[in-house]
Amino acid sequence: MLRVIALMCGVSLLLMSCGSPESRAWYDKLDQINSSPETLRNAVSGATLVTRDPNSFVQEHGTQVEFNAEDGTSYLWYPSNRSIVVGEWRTQSSSRGRTELCYRYGPSTFNPVTQRTGGSWNCSANHFQNTEFLEGNPFGLREGAVPFVIRDRGRYYAPHFTNWLGGDPAQVEYRIRPAFAERLERQIEVETQ
């Protein structure tokens, strides 16, 4: 019986009926963000998204950092790139009624994971579990230079980047504070001692 309860709670964690109040509040906020193209646009416009691949066993893109300017221009800091990839972003409803975040980069760009060149819109219904929403453009991506080359496709968080750039990881300004923020700050503090 204990195994059944543990399994049910494990499955329920995905649905957030188990877990901490902070986790439930985080997932409720993500559901609210995805409720319409307008709410998603409000959440990402003028924000920097730090996004990690969801599967830690299969590293695809690694950690990407992208500033979404209010005018619909995007500034992507991609692993191994020595310059910012400038593109466009928008939100929309899919034909199935799902809220999507879309990006389009220039025809001379190349996605090493999908093996496709840019030039077309790429849209997805993202649930943002692996995304941090930062206020503004804290890494200066709009200015066009990468702060440093992200050398691998690892899983990093905004406090890592802030620390590596000489800032205080505890001072990351979240637009939407993730449930794991305090735990992550303690982890980075231990890593840097």
Outline the fold blueprint.
Blueprint: H1 2-15, H2 21-33, H3 37-44, E1 47-52, E2 63-68, E3 73-77, E4 85-93, E5 99-105, E6 110-111, E7 116-117, E8 122-124, E9 131-135, H4 158-164, E10 174-176, H5 181-191
What does this structure look like?
- By secondary structure, the chain is an alpha+beta fold.
- The protein has helices at 2-15, 21-33, 37-44, 158-164, 181-191, and strands at 47-52, 63-68, 73-77, 85-93, 99-105, 110-111, 116-117, 122-124, 131-135, 174-176.
- The protein has an eight-stranded antiparallel beta sheet. A two-stranded antiparallel sheet has the order 6-7.
- The longest helix has 14 residues, at 2-15.
- It is globular.
Notable features of this structure?
single chain, 193 residues, alpha+beta, eight-stranded antiparallel sheet, two-stranded antiparallel sheet, disordered N terminus
Quick summary:
The chain is of the alpha+beta class. Helices cover 27% and strands 25% of the residues.
Relative helix content: 25-40%
- The overall strand count is 10
- Overall geometry: globular
- Kindly, what is the distance between the CA atoms of the first and last residues, rounded to a whole number of angstroms? 44 Å
The average pLDDT value, as a whole number, equals: 82
Radius of gyration: 17 Å
Biggest beta sheet attributes: 8 strands, antiparallel
**Which ranges are low-confidence, i.e. pLDDT below 50, for 5 or more consecutive residues?**
1-17
In percent terms, what proportion of residues is strand? Answer: 15-25%
Query: Strand pairing plus helix content: what structural class?
Result: alpha+beta
Give the ordered list of helices and strands.
HHHEEEEEEEEEHEH
Instruction: Provide the spatial order of strands within the biggest beta sheet.
Output: 8-5-4-3-2-1-9-10
* Number of DSSP helical runs: 5
